[in-house]
Design goal:
Elements (H helix, E strand, L loop, with lengths): L6 E12 L2 E12 L3 E5 L6 H8 L7 E6 L2 E2 L5 H5 L2 E5 H6 L6 H6 L15 H13 L15 H13 L5 E5 L7 H17 L4 E6 L11 E6 L2 E7 H4 L2 H8 L3 E6 L2 E6 L2
Parallel strand pairs: 3-8, 3-9, 6-7, 7-8
Antiparallel strand pairs: 1-2, 1-4, 4-5, 9-10, 11-12
This protein binds adenosine-5'-triphosphate (ATP).
Length: 265
């Protein structure tokens, strides 16, 4: 049994209600520090809702949510959010397109979205350049964000999420809109980030098994606002379990350290 100090996330019967609907229901979740987990489920399952609670953006309507030993509702959410890096289309859409790529990365320090709120030091800028180098975009650091391709924006968003040296990194469908080559480059990059940051807890939200980097070994399957499975990837990524998560008949194949799924016709 882990003590609370070893846990990045400890949710007990967490629920989120909006518009009279349960978007998340009785959700128990316990994630160790340094774990790599995947939130897998069909459209509308509640994955993004779960991520909004995990990132300290939304407080649950019921239950108890503890993140990095801080109880939501009793802690300063702004301070907690600085310890969590979030990247995904919800972040990309909010970034002011007139910012340079470097400013976009620096905006992650205080989690702002416009250039006039950025207060950065020379040390921050050096770290931002280092991260842009890591994602292969340092040569574009002076370019306007609005001029980047979707793939490039996703990479900037990852650098932005890492700039505050978070303890938890949350990736919300980071491959959305990417072509095959860009998706594979991203999967490899996420794998490298996982490898180079052993203490970092990383969560990945996806609909697609192909997007799961090998380092991610835990699957949390969601459907209709509830957790349907939670456990080891190799045990759970089978045709019957993935079929249960998505509510359709599927064939799952493992190829090396990666998985693919097709709907059965
Ligand atoms: N504020 C809201 N009020 C009412 N319903 C909402 C609200 N926000 C989301 N929903 C609904 O809650 C359900 C879960 O939404 P959520 O965005 O968490 O799903 P998801 O698993 O991330 O889906 P997708 O894969 O399509 O992004 C959806 O049916 C959505 O329409």
């Amino acid at each position: 049994m882990n003590s609370m100090q070893d846990l990045a996330i400890d949710f007990r019967r967490v629920g989120v209600k909006a518009g009279g609907r349960d978007l998340l229901l009785d959700f128990d979740l316990s994630i160790d520090l340094g774990a790599r987990f995947v939130i897998l489920g069909p459209n509308g399952a509640g994955k993004t809702t779960l991520l909004t609670v995990l990132s300290g953006t939304v407080r649950p309507s019921s239950g108890q949510a503890v993140i990095l030993s801080e109880l939501l509702g009793r802690t300063d959410m702004r301070t907690l959010r600085r310890r969590i890096g979030l990247c995904g289309s919800s972040v990309i859409e909010r970034l002011n397109g007139a910012m340079t790529v470097l400013q976009c990365v620096l905006s992650g320090i205080d989690q702002v979205f416009s250039p006039w709120w950025i207060a950065s030091t020379a040390k921050d800028e050096a770290r931002a350049h280092e991260l842009l180098e890591l994602v292969g975009l340092d040569p574009l650091s002076g370019r306007n964000f609005s001029l980047l391709s979707m793939g490039e924006r996703q990479q900037v968003a990852i650098a932005r999420a890492l700039v505050s040296q978070p303890e938890i990194l949350l990736l919300d469908e980071p491959s959305a809109g990417l072509d095959l080559g860009a998706r594979e480059a991203l999967v490899n990059r996420i794998e490298r980030i996982a490898h180079n940051n052993p203490a970092l807890t990383i969560g990945l939200v996806t609909h697609h098994l192909e997007e799961i980097p090998p380092a991610f070994d835990r699957i949390i399957g969601i459907n209709s606002a509830r957790k349907v499975v939670d456990g080891n990837k190799n045990a759970l990524l089978t045709s019957s379990v993935v079929g249960e998560i998505f509510g359709i008949d599927v064939d799952v194949t493992r190829i090396g350290e990666r998985f693919v799924a097709f709907a059965r016709v």
